[in-house]
From TrEMBL:
It comes from Flavobacterium pectinovorum. This is Transglutaminase. Residues 111-178 form the Transglutaminase-like domain. It comes from the Bacteria. GO terms for cellular component: cytoplasm. PANTHER family: CYTOKINESIS PROTEIN 3. InterPro entries: CAP/Cytokinesis_protein (IPR052557), Papain-like_cys_pep_sf (IPR038765), Transglutaminase-like (IPR002931). SMART domains: TGc (SM00460).
């Protein structure tokens, strides 16, 4: 049988429009993991080490995330040259499932041994290690949102994979692939840069950047239109809890000279917030603080182009698509 091939795409930030810098921080669990060997002879030995050093379900789940994000590199060459679809035959459902499980085992084992993978390898390795330390984890496949061109995209795509893991009877969201680094378009290479914001991510932020193929999370239906048409948010947005309160869409209709009102959570008037106008930073004028958020207006100039991105200090936090009325 021909398995439907999962196209593993890793979508990247467009550096022509966007600049980003993350504060690479490690918590107590990460600092322990940093002392681990970069490679273990087996997943069982790694799991035993984690169980020895950590006692709670949360700490074990975080330790697995951190080890993978710190030691498995994104395989950009495989992303550019994906493997051919795998075919196999079976006589009954039990044999089919056995074949599928065998393929999954080969995928996580290859990721562990070679220390490089695309998202399928990251997620299956996470699920496998979680099972070894007694945690329930599932692989979720779906769409991802990382580019300006994703704002207002017409259809969702199955181009990414992530995990959910159960901690103290509660499921949390985990994306170890995005935790390991980012693509530098200037160097045309992956940069390993540990980022913890994709462990136990708040669903309101996670599903602004991910949409499961099922359209459902924990038996609750998600809004695909909100995902496709919402603003593009960034890692710094999640880290700073900078929720976009207004406008409620990432697509803004405006003519030249129109004033557009924005409201973003957890930003004060003393913070350095700006956008690009004619290729130069433009400061926000006359902002006001409203119930824990910064409210301000931007006068749209068609010379700004089709997108407007806001930066908090050096971090991009939100992008919107501007279309003429």
């Amino acid at each position: 049988m021909k398995i439907k091939k999962i196209t593993i795409l890793f979508l990247f930030i467009n550096a022509i429009f966007l600049h980003f810098s993350y504060s690479q921080e490690y918590n107590a669990i990460d600092k322990i993991i940093l002392k681990y060997p970069k490679h273990f002879s087996s997943t069982e030995i790694l799991a035993e080490r984690i169980e020895k050093d950590f006692s709670t379900e949360h700490d074990k789940a975080r330790a697995i995330y951190s080890w993978i994000a710190l030691n498995i590199k994104y395989d950009y060459k495989s992303y550019l040259n994906p493997a051919k679809p795998i075919r196999f035959s079976y006589r009954n459902e039990a044999e089919k499932q056995k074949q599928i499980e065998s393929l999954k085992d080969k995928t996580w084992q290859k990721a562990f041994d070679s220390q490089k993978a695309v998202c399928e390898g990251f997620t299956l390795l996470y699920q496998h290690l979680a099972s070894l330390v007694g945690l329930k984890s599932e692989v979720i496949r779906g769409d991802s949102k990382r580019l300006l061109s994703d704002i207002g995209r017409q259809n969702s795509q199955s181009n990414h994979a992530w995990n959910i893991v159960q901690i103290d009877r509660k499921w949390i969201l985990v994306d170890a692939t995005w935790g390991q680094g980012y693509y530098d378009s200037n160097k045309k290479a992956m940069v390993n840069y540990f980022n913890s914001v994709y462990f136990d991510t708040d669903p309101k932020y996670f599903f602004a950047k991910h949409f499961p193929d099922s359209g459902v999370y924990l038996n609750e239906k998600l809004n695909k239109e909100d995902f496709l048409n919402g603003p593009l948010i960034f890692d710094a947005t999640i880290e700073g809890d900078n929720e976009i309160l207004s406008p409620n869409s990432g697509i803004i209709e405006a003519n030249d000279g129109d004033k557009i009102t924005f409201r973003i959570k957890n930003i004060s008037k003393t913070d350095t917030l700006f956008y690009l106008k004619k290729g130069r930073p433009a400061k926000i004028e006359n902002p006001r603080e409203v119930r824990g958020a910064l409210e301000f207006q931007v006068t749209y100039d068609k010379k700004m182009g089709s997108y407007i991105t806001f930066f908090l200090y050096q971090n991009s936090i939100a992008s919107f698509k501007i279309i003429p009325k």
